[in-house]
Specification:
alpha/beta; BirA Bifunctional Protein, domain 2; globular
Length: about 220
């Protein structure tokens, strides 16, 4: 990824394609270093192989099949400590983990979530799309369909987990579980919204610019 033309106040760790558990372990390592001021705040960008992650508010009825059904289709299931219910990650989706010091960005978890949403609203706007918040649901939506899911865990005021932005990933899998436990509304992708293939690579620089603008514009 070429970020030469994006002046940043944070480090970027572009992990390429990485399994969910190894990337979670990486976040923990980075978080310990960030908490100790041994490294700058770091934004991890990654694509995961197909996985369903279960958050702290997971309800079993939101998995519509036995776990074996997902395993037979190559979809792992991982229990996590982030907030929220069940979320999908997979190829064609950009997952964004800001290992940032929340105590340096307002020290307020509600504000932190709204600021994460703002990064996605700005990213969408860069491509002429009007995203929106949809209270009380966390995340970013295009119309009545979610395009970016957000789930976090903050330890010692350092953030873990983050944002899943649907770029060119298949949407069929979302029929096989209840995304984020929300039954009444659907899911979309940037490719679907734009009517063309929108790659993960295309999203990266706008995402970096949005994080810079939201979290470091006043620094």
């Amino acid at each position: 990824m070429n970020v030469a033309h994006v002046p940043l106040s944070f480090d970027v760790f572009d992990a390429g394609v990485m399994g969910y558990q190894p990337c979670w372990d990486l976040q923990k390592q980075l978080a310990a270093e960030v908490a100790a001021d041994a490294r700058p705040e770091t934004l991890v960008l990654v694509e995961h192989p197909a996985v369903l992650t279960l958050g702290a508010n997971f309800h079993s009825e939101n998995l519509l099949h036995p776990e074996e059904w997902y395993a037979e289709r190559g979809i792992d299931i991982v229990v996590t400590d982030r907030g929220g219910d069940v979320t999908y990650h997979g190829p064609g989706q950009l997952v964004i983990y800001p290992v940032f010091r929340v105590d340096r960005h307002g020290r307020d978890l509600h504000r932190w979530l709204r600021d994460l949403e703002e990064t996605m609203l700005r990213t969408l706007a860069a491509f002429g799309l009007e995203g929106r918040r949809f209270p009380p649901h966390t995340g970013v939506w295009i119309g009545e369909k979610k395009v970016a899911a957000i789930g976090i865990k903050v330890r010692k005021w350092v953030n873990l987990h983050g944002i899943a932005l649907n770029c060119e990933n298949t949407l069929d899998i979302y029929d096989e579980f209840v995304p984020c436990g929300i039954r009444d509304y659907g899911v979309t992708s940037l490719s679907k919204a734009l009517g063309r293939v929108f790659s993960v690579a295309e999203a990266k620089s706008p995402v970096l610019r949005s994080f810079q603008a939201v979290f470091f514009a006043q620094q």
